Structure formats: C-alpha cells, structure tokens
Amino acid sequence: MQNIIESVVAFFGTILWPIKWVVEFLLVAWHEIWTFVGMDPDAGLTWILSVVGLVLVIRAALIPIFVRQIKSQRRMQEVAPQLKKIQDKYKGKKDPFSREAMSRETMELYKRTGTNPLASCLPLLIQMPIFFSLFSVLHNAQTGIDGIGLLNKSLSNSFGHSSFLGAPLHLAFATANGNASVIVLAVVMVALMTASQFITQLQIMSKNQSPEMKASPTYRQQRILLYILPLVFLFSGYNFPLGVMFYWLTTNIWTMAQQFLVIRNMPTPGSEAALARESRVAKKAQRRGGFTIVEDAPVVAEPRVTQRVQPVNSKNRNKKKTGNRR
C-alpha cells in the first residue's frame, strides 16, 4: 500500500507542480502570520491553523464557481420535467437505437437550455488537485524532501515532524505503529468528517429539493451518495495523514455552513426550504405591519364633497306662478 501511495504522490507531484507551488506559498504565508502573533513555529497547532487558513483562502476564491454551480442546479431542476419525459419515452427500450436516440435527445435538451449536469461537480473537481498537492507536500515533508517553493528544508522538517496532542501530523491510522494518540485522533476526525458530510447531503435532499427533482434519477443518485460517502471517509481516515485530514475536515465544515446559508436564503423554488422562507418573510412583514411610515405612503387626495342643490318643489313653483298672475 505504501508503494502505491508513493507512486500516486510522484505522479501527481509531476503534473501538479504549479498548484503545489501555490499551496506551499499559502501554507508558509499563514505559518508566518501565526508565528508573528507569538505561536510556536514548530508546534502542530500552528501548522494545523496554517492548513485551516489555506482552506479559507481556497474556498473563498471558489465562491464565484459555487454561485455558478447553484445557477446550473437551478436550470437542471427547471428541465427535470422535460428530462423525465424523454426517459419515460424510452422506458423499457434497451436496443442500441433507442438508447442512442435517448442520449441524443438528452444532449439536445442540455444544449438548448444551456444546462450542464457536470457543473455541480466542478467545485469538487477543482479542489481535488489542491487536495493531492497538499498530500504531496506533507509526504515530502515527512521524508525530508524540500518543497518546490517557499517551503524550504527547515520549514519542511518543521511541518513533517510537528505533532498535535501527541499525534505526529505526518502519520495516518495505517502507519500509526501503535501510537494511541494517532489512532484516537484519526477515529475522531473520521467521525466528524462523516457527520459533517452526511448532514450537508441530508439537508440538501430533505429541504432543498422540489417535488419534480425528487422524482428524477439525480435524486436517487444523491441518496446513494448519502450512504457511500461514509465508506470513502473510512478509507481516507485509514490511509491519509492527519495533516491532510485536517484540510478535509475544514473543507467539510465550510461546505456544511455554506449550504446552510444557501438553503436558508436562496432555496430551490417549490422546496420545503422555499416554503419555510416564505413563511419567515410573511411573519417578518406581519410583525412590521404596525410600524408603517406615513411619509413613505402615497398621499391620495380625498374627493371634495359638494352639497347637492335640491330641486324646487313643483307645488311651490305653481304657487309662485299663481301669485305672479294676481
């Protein structure tokens, strides 16, 4: 297993050279900031906070891409009924011609509506090279290899041999060699990573899905991912160093908070979250109803009421005429 990991690290280290340089730059920059405020430069907590700072910068830079992801998901939900019609049209037809026709019509629908089913995976795809770059940086620091940028030999040794609560950051559950601190910390982090990812996926599926989206195949795929991802974290928790797991955990917490804010303030139309937001807005408007500002209200001129002139009685007119004749 160790040989496989080293081969993967060497491969990604070659093709991810520019990203590794940026990762080292951000890592060292945050390390200098924490050292400047008085923290021990060789302490594991200092390097953990540097990794957290790295995550904050990267995720903040990915916010525009996340906004595009939300817009793409909205468009996918809008075309979900049309996509379902195409799937129902070819339901049960397994011959090559029907499958080709269904694929062609589906792609034409995506092209006509400007949707892309892979757009929702874009932030994750962008983060994976950064994740492997950090893995490579930590692995090189563990083996005493200098960085390619600002992570010189001294900083590399400091990062590679730092520890937190008695657990060296370069070790993993698989390489703990009986170190109880590493095993306990790895188990706790796997539990936190699994819980944060599960909550994030669960709140999307339970609160931010329209009825049309829940009837689509995408919803079933999300339900499968809801239970598969914990297995992924079990594998990562067993093999990945603690320093890399801190990066992953911080990313999960960011994603969970980000999704909570999006679902609360920009929910999917027709979803449970959208109905809850409408209810909150209505209650808020009702509470403010008694504090109407008169100056802002349009002034409507009241119609003038004029007294109606009563017609002269015909009998009185006859009396007047008779008196005049006399």
Structure commentary:
By secondary structure, this protein is mainly α. It has one domain. The chain is built from 14 helices and 2 strands, in the order ααααααααββαααααα. It has helices spanning 2-15, 17-36, 44-61, 63-78, 80-89, 96-113, 122-142, 153-160, 180-207, 211-214, 217-239, 242-265, 272-287, 314-325, and strands at 163-164, 167-168. A two-stranded antiparallel ribbon has the order 1-2. Strand 1 (163-164) and strand 2 (167-168) form a beta hairpin. Helix 1 packs across helix 7 and helix 2 (17-36) packs across helix 7 (122-142). The longest helix has 28 residues, at 180-207. The N and C termini lie far apart (136 Å). Mean pLDDT is 75; it is low at 290-303.
Brief descriptors of the model:
single chain, 326 residues, two-stranded antiparallel sheet, 2 strands, 1% strand, globular
Largest sheet: 2 strands, antiparallel
Number of separate structural domains = 1
| Terminal-residue CA separation | 136 Å
Strand order of the largest sheet: 1-2
SSE succession: HHHHHHHHEEHHHHHH
Content-based structural category = mainly alpha
Alpha plus pi helix count: 14
Q: What percent strand?
A: under 5%
Q: Mean pLDDT score, rounded? A: 75
